[in-house]
Amino acid sequence: MTDRTPTRESSREVIPSPDEFRERSQRVFLEETFRAHARFVANTLRRFGVAPADSSDQVQEVFLVVFRLQGSYDPTRPLKPWLFGIAYRVAGRYRQARGRAGATVDTEDLELPDPSPLADANLETKQKQALLLAALERVELDRRAVLILADVEGESVPTIAEALQIPLNTAYSRLRLAREELGRALARLRLGKGGDA
């Protein structure tokens, strides 16, 4: 018969310390969040004008912030709006660093709802998407964030206000103004004027 009593060293290997457990949990959270939402974050950044060449670096920047702030994330709340809020702030810093003229929306790699339409439908979809993104670029950034979360991601205004850390009435006001700005920008682009709204 062998002695199966665990030694101090073997039990340390089996049961992680609280610090080791917390570190492992944080790493798992970050890895799972990245796997599930990196594409969403990349598309969000692109909608805010992050250049395709900088997209990968800015996605990494978002997930560095996620790593630092994950302790403040409330798991009872939806994750995507929280990630969106972080991406919004990272994109804002990016745009500030590059200047507004340097930040443009490129539709080349953005996700399309249907990955396999017919060639004619694909071209028409790309043209409509390019027009919409060009108009969206003319919507002020703070308003654009609310508009994207509400009309693209389907989030409620209270969820948006929490994700962007703004008052609820401000979120409603920004959404209304963003829709108006987008409508005017689309009308100008369709008429071929293309000027700022």
The CATH architecture name of the largest domain reads Orthogonal Bundle
Class from helix and strand fractions: mainly alpha
The largest sheet, given as strand count, sense and whether it forms a barrel, is: none
Radius of gyration: 22 Å
- Structure annotation, total helices: 8
Q: What string, H for helix and E for strand, traces the elements in order? A: HHHHHHHH
CATH class of the largest domain: Mainly Alpha
Mean pLDDT: 80
Topology (elements, then pairings):
Layout (H helix, E strand, L loop, with lengths): L7 H7 L3 H30 L4 H18 L9 H20 L20 H19 L3 H12 L4 H8 L3 H23 L7
Helix pairs in contact: 2-3, 2-4, 3-4, 4-7, 5-8, 6-7, 6-8, 7-8
Describe the structure.
Helix 6 (141-152) crosses helix 8 (168-190). With 197 residues, this protein is mainly alpha-helical. It has two domains: 17-106, RNA polymerase sigma factor, region 2, helix turn helix motif (Rna Polymerase Sigma Factor, Chain: A), CATH 1.10.1740.10; 116-197, Orthogonal Bundle (Arc Repressor Mutant, subunit A), CATH 1.10.10.10. The longest helix is centred in the first third of the chain and has 30 residues, at 18-47. Residues 105-110 and 112-116 have low confidence and may be disordered. The chain is built from eight helices and no strands.
